[in-house]
Amino acid sequence: MNISALFNDSKAFGTRVTQMTGVSAKGPISARVIAPERPTTGAPMVAIHGISRNADELVEHFQSEAAARSRVIIVPEFDKNNWPVFQRITGKHRPDLALLALLNTLRQNGTIDDQPVDLFGFSGGAQLAHRFAMLFPELVNQIHLGAAGWYTLPVPTLPYPLGMGAGSSRGNWHLLMESSLPQFLKRPIHVYVGDEDTAQDRSLRREPLLNQVQGDTRVERAERYVSLISHCQAELGLPVTARLTLLEGCGHDFAQCCSAGGLVQIMSRVN
Amino acid sequence: MSFEAIVNDPATQLAEAKWCFASRRVNRDHAVSLMTDFENTRHGDLILGRVMELGKHGGIQLAAGRRSELFVGDLVVLPCAARYAPDQFEGIAEIDPEGADMLAGGGCLGKVRARNERVKPPTRVLPIGRLTNSSGQAVNVADYALPDPERASRIPVIAVFGTAMNSGKTLATARLGYGLRQTGLRVATIKVTGTGSFGDFNEYEDTGVHYTADFTDAGLATTYLVPLPPIKRCIERLLADAERHECDVVVMEVADGLFQRESAALLADTEFHDRIGGMVFACGDAVAAAGGVQELRRLGYEPDVLTGMLSCSPMAVAEAQAATGIRVMTKGELSDPGEAMAILRKTTRPETKTAATS
Q1: Cβ of A180 under 8 Å from any chain B Cβ?
Q2: In this predicted structure, what is the pLDDT of residue B4?
Q3: Which one, of A103, A32, A98, A20, lies nearest residue A61 by Cα?
Q4: Interchain CB contact of A166 with B (< 8 Å)
Q5: In this structure, is residue B355 part of a structural domain?
Q6: Which residues of chain B make contact with A101, given a CB cutoff of 8 A?
Q7: Over the stretch B287-332, which tens digit does the pLDDT of each residue have?
Q8: Could you tell me the residue range of the domain that residue B246 belongs to?
Q9: Is A109 in contact with A36 (CB distance < 8 Å)?
Q10: Do residue B137 and residue B164 come from a single domain?
Q11: What is the mean pLDDT of residues A8-29?
Q12: Could you report the per-residue pLDDT of A58-68, keeping only the tens digit for each?
């Protein structure tokens, strides 16, 4: 671990924020680590930014959570140079290795222990969060997905990354996720989206098959995702833990989801 | 002390000697005298000798973990043991007082019974004496073994077998260990049969896994011609020690090919069968893969993946997959945490009621 600088002490919150860098086989990855001043008791959480790469905003909004729940919160920063694509896990793009490198680095230096982590992601970060959890469910406790543009569905007839069938991407992601699906479905999966997040903006992926299967807006896609996950959980005889929370008066804006929609507080309650 | 006693004082000779890798657990202070009754030598007894003539092994793997060049006249300490190495020697655990054969660089002194025609004759060692302790008992590597466990281990085990020597087992073991380690799991890599050598041991260590050991840690200098019960006991000692080191999973290499005496005995053993939760099979080529898988299936095993030398050739991969229906993975794929976890997911844990395999 390379703690390059004490980033931002925040006595108001009772937390300390440090910056660290881990190294994965696909490139270095930096992160802000929010640690409570008190000894930690809660499970660590990884909070992943979206394509605006707004790690600062995540740090700002999660400091209170780190203090209130006495937990370490890790906010990776997928920089454009090393991680032009971090939402998907493919043969070429391996953000999963970056997250593993961060967790191993923090475990090695004693910042976090061996327990599974909670995962949160917003927008593009939610895409990575659920795909990472599908690949490594054993390493994940709870999954919190905020306003993902689209999802990898546990459907074998759809090609990866849309589903879990053989796709054009290099690698055996569909087979790996198939092997871990029962474990993944055992995790509590919380999905959040602003009830006004219905714009079909440029950042929302739109393709005929995707639109047809998942819907036209983030709200629609979140509803269908939660419905499908609940169905899969029930089919396997598992507790149905997938939940959708609509954030009132919120669009596709992380800060707004936190300030107006109370996203962090809601997450804290369901955790 | 007489002049003769001073000249033959083992302390000086033992201090100057090059102690081999297989003797690394031995407390050297316990060796206080020498006996020359070589006819009573047992497997694992430590022998002090002097290099008479250099042959196949121009160096010795030291207990410190590095190779040392050998020179005629060098003093060496090696355990008496048998060796199975079709590409080098087959040797037995016997010491000829006129001159013994160095069967392996990591520590194995005995008598050559067969030699591959492509290798030089063995390095010859003049035995000076068997090391003995203050009670007059032979110093044997078994005396420094890990203890027997109090209960049967429960740690999941992925076994790595191969079609033959040099089929890629060690690389597969190391890379799978590396892949699993990246997920944050505590990983053990162990080698449970073969000849004491630091090559495989160091290759495991290089991956940064949390625990590495081999049969020499469990008291066996080599496992060739050793009956099955002591080998199973050795395995259980290593598994229990991995558990003591709080490992989550063991990747366990079994040396040589399926038909090798000890490997075949292990595979045919029902307790061993039940203890193995997953299997990786390293193969030299597609034909070997097809034959090997057929033999494993006959014995009730289904490898989870194939790997090894054949994975270097896309054509061999296609042939092997078509012949066996089992996926072939490259070393890069075994190193991938996602792929490694998928193998671990298929790995079953032993039942609580499983008895100790010893």
Answers
A1: yes
A2: 57
A3: A32
A4: no
A5: no
A6: 182
A7: 999 999 999 999 999 999 999 999 999 999 999 999 999 999 999 9
A8: 157-346
A9: no
A10: no
A11: 86
A12: 999 999 999 99
pLDDT above 50 (res B157): yes
Q: Tell me the ipTM for this assembly.
A: 0.86
Number of domains in chain A: 1
Q: Let me know if residue B171 belongs to a domain.
A: yes
B346: contact with A, CB 8 A cutoff: yes
Chain B partners within 8 Å of A138 (Cβ): 183, 341
Same domain, B207 and B248: yes
B22 and B164: one domain? Answer: no
Interface list for A 70-99 with B (CB within 8 A):
89, 96-97
- Asked whether residue A151 carries a pLDDT value surpassing 60, the answer given is yes
Can you tell me which residue has the tokens 């844990």? Answer: B349
Which of B118, B143, B168 terminates a domain? The answer is B143
Task: Residue B337: list chain A partners with CB under 8 A.
Answer: 96-97, 100, 136
CB contact under 8 A, A176 and B184: no
CB contact under 8 A, B182 and A138: no
- Quote the minimal CA–CA distance from B184 to chain A in Å: 6
Q: Are residues B114 and B37 in the same domain?
A: yes
Question: Nearest to residue A123, comparing CAs of A66, A196, A197?
Answer: A197
Q: Are B136 and B254 members of one domain?
A: no
**Minimum CA–CA partner of B182 in chain A:** A100
- Distance in Å, alpha carbon of A170 to nearest chain B alpha carbon: 12
Q: Are residues B139 and B163 in the same domain?
A: no
Type of residue numbered B202: N
Give yes or no: residues B214 and B299 share one domain.
yes
- B110, B143, B176 — which closes off a domain? B143
Residues 6+ apart with CB under 8 A from A227: none
CATH code assigned at A11? 3.40.50.1820
The reply to whether B107 and B131 lie within a common domain is: yes
